[in-house]
Design goal:
The chain has 8 helices and no strands. The chain is an all-alpha fold and about 130 residues long.
Length: about 130
């Protein structure tokens, strides 16, 4: 049985954009919670994986401000266990992309002092800059 979700036009645009970017049909999620119980990162998240899906279903763009979308490790445990086969890691990646496309930088490399830059591993800097800058 497919869940019918009714949302306002603006909110529906957010849902459709996320579905298009992720390639997933988000509205088929039945909120069973298996993704949340399967997630190895859930203890560090501000909202659960099931809540991420629900917020997208109702078109609530506040999900983009969540730290949970950045903590998804793309381990696919949720996808393997999901009875609907929803790839939550593809959805969180789509949400991260939407955030990055707003051109908001969360790291300003020029604000780091020279000593910090010398001490930090190069791979950590590259990874952080790719993930937290637009």
């Amino acid at each position: 049985m497919t869940t019918i979700v009714r949302v306002k036009k603006k909110n529906r645009e957010f849902l459709l954009k996320t579905e298009e970017m992720s390639g997933e049909y988000i509205t088929v999620c039945e909120q069973c919670g298996i993704c949340t119980t399967s997630c190895p990162m859930v203890d560090d998240m501000d909202i659960s994986p099931a809540n991420i899906i629900r917020l997208v279903q109702i078109g609530d763009e506040s999900v983009l401000e969540s730290t949970a979308i950045w903590l998804c490790a793309s381990c696919y445990t949720c996808t393997v266990r999901c009875p609907r086969g929803i790839d939550l890691s593809a959805i969180t990646e789509a949400l991260r992309q939407q955030t990055l496309r707003k051109s908001i930088d969360y790291i300003d490399i020029s604000s780091l002092d020279r000593k910090e830059l010398e001490e930090l591993p190069a791979i950590a800097l590259v990874s952080a800059l790719r993930k937290y800058t637009s």
